[in-house]
Predict the structure.
Amino acid sequence: MKFKKKNKMKTTIPTTAMPDIVFMLIFFFMVSSVLRTHEGLSVVLPKAKQIEKLESRVHVTYIWVSKDGMISIDGRLYQPQSIRNIMYEKRTADPQLIVSIRADELVNMELMSKIHKELRLADALAVNYSTRAM
Amino acid sequence: MSLLKKKGMREAEMPSGSLADIAFLLLIFFLLSTTIDMDKGIGIVLPAEGGEIKMSSQNITNILIDARGSILMDDKEVEMHEIKGIVENLQMQNPKMVFSVKAHPRTKYKVYVEVLDQLKQAKTRVISIAE
């Protein structure tokens, strides 16, 4: 009986806060999973050391270029020559537009030059080559 | 046994003071973890269409990349890791130096980004992309 008395001295774990915490976690995971989804192609980004962060996500448009030469913008596939129209529209809607090029490391520069030319024609000159950290 | 039960009831109190602490901790953690996930890359500004500027050839260093990934800098073949040092030297000699990167159509994008990375590491201000 002495042993049992000692056992009763233990405090119980408060469980009222549990649902709050769990709900917060759930909300977070819901929101972050929506933010993280990139609608794009599967690419292996090139590596680089001297990298800078993109300041805001609001003014950024992504161009995905896969190693077999497919180009995807906003989840749709396009031909290189149609980039200028899309980018021109985006550029007029948002003058601060930054184009983030997420291209596979095995893409030929021929295609990249085409994309550069299209972006220049669309006057979307701020470009960011998306890379992995080394 | 009745005595023991009474003791137990007395201690049934909920410490809710630390709840705010926990919530803040979670909030801070989530804030940090979401900003870390930002996109990173090499930023560059393309030249405007038709806006070619003539420069004296003294102020331009041409960097050519061929299809196999060899790099030619002012008619001299250089290794990838050497570029940073050479560029730093050139910039000290001539602060107005512009570096023009030109790649063969069959060059891999990976090599091109590596060259740009080297230039960025050398704190180059003006990088020109020749088509």
DSSP finds four helices and eight strands in chain A. The beta strands of chain A are 47-48, 52-53, 60-65, 71-73, 76-78, 98-103, 126-130, 132-133.
